[in-house]
Amino acid sequence: NAGVTQTPKFRVLKTGQSMTLLCAQDMNHEYMYWYRQDPGMGLRLIHYSVGEGTTAKGEVPDGYNVSRLKKQNFLLGLESAAPSQTSVYFCASLRELLTDTQYFGPGTRLTVL
Amino acid sequence: AQSVTQLGSHVSVSEGALVLLRCNYSSSVPPYLFWYVQYPNQGLQLLLKYTSAATLVKGINGFEAEFKKSETSFHLTKPSAHMSDAAEYFCAVSQGPNAGNMLTFGGGTRLMVKP
Questions:
Q1: Most A CBs within 10 Å: which of B44, B60, B110, as the mutation test of the A interface?
Q2: Which end of chain B has fewer CB atoms surrounding its CB within 10 Å, N or C?
Q3: Contact: B107, A40; criterion CB under 8 Å
Q4: pLDDT tens column, B11-49
């Protein structure tokens, strides 16, 4: 049982390049989330999914797209990277209820030059 | 939307001293509150959560938090700090099922423990 995994762990992009971050969970959780973490700002929600085939916008969705084609995977895409997207990205999953625990992945550190 | 505020971005204590990390929430409905810990270069790990069952919540590693509705607070405490407690701590509130049970986090408090 690996929990929540994220690939890659590190990435450096040039402005305008695109990339996809992969989040995978093996706990059969319904809900999945993408957050970004910036110093002094805690974690802010980018997009989330309440089930396979569904996605919704979070607090800071601009410049990102997501897809949840399979229940266990949640992909975060950057179509045209900007320096403002330099951050640490965390994926999380939740079984179902709001009283359940969100489990977090180890993070992806992205630098956009 | 519900929100949380963490007072003090950095807290320094001596080993063996009391740890007190402050969190205040803003909510028009009974909140579901969480404390997470993040060790360097790692993801977030749940310390404890308040789900309206009991106002004093005990978590892992000797931490506990008390929900005080009158003060809209959910402060995290530990009687005696260890060097291994050095980390960043986040308070969070759930936005509920109508918002996908997503969490809104405070800005975080970095705890430093001096020998």
A1: B44
A2: C
A3: yes
A4: 999 999 999 999 999 987 778 899 999 998 888 999 999
